[in-house]
Amino acid sequence: MTHPIFDGLPNSLRRARTLLWSLPLTTVFLVGCSVGIGTIEPDDVALAIRQAEASIAQAKNSNLTISARPSLTQAEVKLAEAKRALDDKEGLIAFQAAQEAQLQAQNAMMLSSQATSFQKLLTEESKQYEAALSRAKLESEQNRDSARQIQDDLLALRREVENVRRDSSLILQDRAPVGWKPTFKPRENRCVH
Questions:
Q1: Nearest-10 Cα torsion for 56, 62, 65, 68
Q2: How many other C-beta atoms are found inside a 10 Å radius of the C-beta of residue 169?
Q3: Mean pLDDT rounded to a whole number for the chain
Q4: CB–CB of 101/56 below 8 Å?
Q5: pTM score, two decimals?
Q6: Residue 9 phi/psi, 5° resolution?
Q7: pLDDT of 53-110, one tens digit each?
């Protein structure tokens, strides 16, 4: 279906005619397709903001450690930026800020989890150290008590030896003939107290 005006035109003009008709259609098509490339749908932004809010709420309810609170604060700041950007109809900025807020909230929970695990590890190691220290103190006390007992036993044994020597000397003197003297002298007690 050609227009009667164009029926007698050469091929080059026919191509030009086709180009003239297709150019506006191509432009409309390209503009229509490019709208989705640089923008984010409002539903996607709203979803990202809801997810960020949920992550922040979860982080707040998880009893964060002190080391994780700056990340949570950063997440709240980014969420506020996302909401402002959404109000200003800056979808891409709002989407990026919402995603960053969600990541910061998740980071806060992860930091808190790591800090809690590290604290548990330190507590466990501290308990093991204290138990080892208590065992060492107990062994030291037992060794001290054993040393005292050995010293007391040794002192008692020395006294016993002295008593035996004295008694043997007296026995020898009682049974010895008149004028006999023992050839050994009892040793003096050299115990140091």
A1: -20
A2: 14
A3: 78
A4: yes
A5: 0.51
A6: -85, 150
A7: 999 999 888 888 888 888 889 999 999 999 998 888 888 999 999 999 999 999 888 9
| 144 confidence band (pLDDT: 50, 70, 90) | very high
**Band (41; pLDDT cuts 50, 70, 90):** confident
Distance of CA 142 to the CA centre of its chain: 40
Residue 77 and residue 118 in contact, taking contact as beta carbons nearer than 8 Å: no
Phi-psi region of 101 (alpha: psi -120 to 50; beta: other; left: phi over 0): alpha
Task: State the residue for tokens 């010293």.
Answer: 151
The CA-based dihedral angle spanning residues 167, 169, 174, 177, taken in that order and rounded to the nearest 10 degrees: 160
CA distance 179 to 118: 89
Alpha-helix runs per DSSP H in the chain: 11-34, 42-61, 69-87, 91-175
Q: How many residues does the chain have?
A: 193
